[in-house]
Amino acid sequence: MQLRTFTVENPATLTSVAEVPDMGPAEAREAVRCAHHVLDSWASRPPRDRSDILMRAHRMMIEDADSLADLVSQENGKSMSDAHAEIRYAAEFFRWYAEEAVRSEGTFGVASSGRSRSIVTHRPVGVAALVTPWNFPAAMVTRKVAPALAAGCSVVLKPAAETPLTAMAIADLLTRADLPDGVLTTVTTTDPGPVVDTWLGDERVRKLSFTGSTRVGRLLLHAAADRIINCSMELGGNAPVIITEDADLEQAVAGTMIAKFRNGGQACTAANRILVHRTVADDYVALLAARVGDLAVGDPRRGSAIGPMISARERDRLVTQVDTAVAGGARVVRQAPLPDLPGHFVAPTVLTDVAPGSPILNEELFGPVAPVVTWQDDDEVIALANATEHGLAAYVFAGDTLRAMALAERIQAGMVGINRGVVSDPAAPFGGFKQSGLGREGARDGLRAFQETQYLSVDWP
Ligand code: NAD
């Protein structure tokens, strides 16, 4: 039977990039069959073998960086410099977990009675289902695949329908790096519900690692409850950026530009609310507006710094959020010019006088719009920062680093950038408080997410 296909579209030019198979439950089940078939042989391979494959994948990804970055940019629309940065970041997960794969360790303990000894080890959790979003088509894949493979899990992967090509290219690269057949199978689809439901209903699947919206994460947690599946959830964010009265404003603006406009604002860690001390607000806004007004918006493959939104729906949602804020009294201070192109572009925008409680401060923006709010004392800014159901990232810019750290400790967020606008690091635990998720990726935590803890209780004479 001929498999149906769907078109992957370049969101900057609205031209077709490629056709890929549109799979369903039958292919999802077959992928699990393959993963389950090879699970034991993969899990029992010497850790050094698994490590070598991941290390080769890292090297190949760096060697292929230009073509992979081009692919990411074509299907996702991000700027070429963002695409290159993503490939370097994505490749680093292979290297980091190649190193981690051979650092397997446990503990040895003495029972309080003295009558037994405990040996604690970590076992692969089993077949893992990985579901990834479109906004980092490479890094969200390697951040899950690398630790899963290092832990000895076999995996089934479902990338977002908008950006399946990078995931397919990474799977191909792993095959060339000698990953055995069946250890990773990619299922591409425009109808994710039945595919992921098939996995969650299959007793051979023991793990779900999801990155995406809080709405879909909640749905999947409900579905995973039936079989008590081990879940890791990397969900939405609503990051505040706090600028204190003693901050270096040049540094604060440079950091805000990264936190807000990297990836065109389409990042879960993106700055959503800029909270600036009233005494420095005018100077800060003037500097920020100048930078934003200069942003080149357009086709990334023609050198723009800001590409399009991923879809017409996302563009319309963001434009409505801005219009609603303006109708509520917000003021547009500066907008970068829009290109005369067919893609889903939104002008990078600085908004001030945003009314407290305005929806734009509560909803994830996911685009190049920066709402600025002013504050007077620390308690007020902490209350503003924490007034959200999310708790993924936050940023603090302050002249006194200890004060910045003290403020950071009061923010309910899993990651806080201090005088810097980026927090992502393969060697650090990535994840959120509150409705931003469950568990952590990256670092040792990311490996543990694909392991069960087992302890042997040994009778002692
Ligand atoms: P999304 O939730 O719509 O989709 C994420 C993935 O889930 C995609 O693969 C999609 O096909 C799949 N999916 C959608 N509906 C589904 C369903 N009913 N059943 C099963 N699978 C389903 O999110 P998105 O629009 O692709 O990505 C943007 C969101 O992801 C934002 O909220 C962003 O904050 C979040 N995100 C979080 C992190 C993090 O690490 N915390 C990283 C990147 C993105």
UniProtKB/TrEMBL annotation:
Catalytic residues (UniProt): E234
UniProt keyword Oxidoreductase present: yes
GO molecular function, one term: oxidoreductase activity
EC number annotated for this UniProt entry: 1.2.1.-
EC top class named in words: oxidoreductase
Domain of life: Bacteria
Keyword annotations: Oxidoreductase
Protein family membership: Belongs to the aldehyde dehydrogenase family.
Protein's UniProt name: NAD-dependent succinate-semialdehyde dehydrogenase
Organism field: Gordonia westfalica
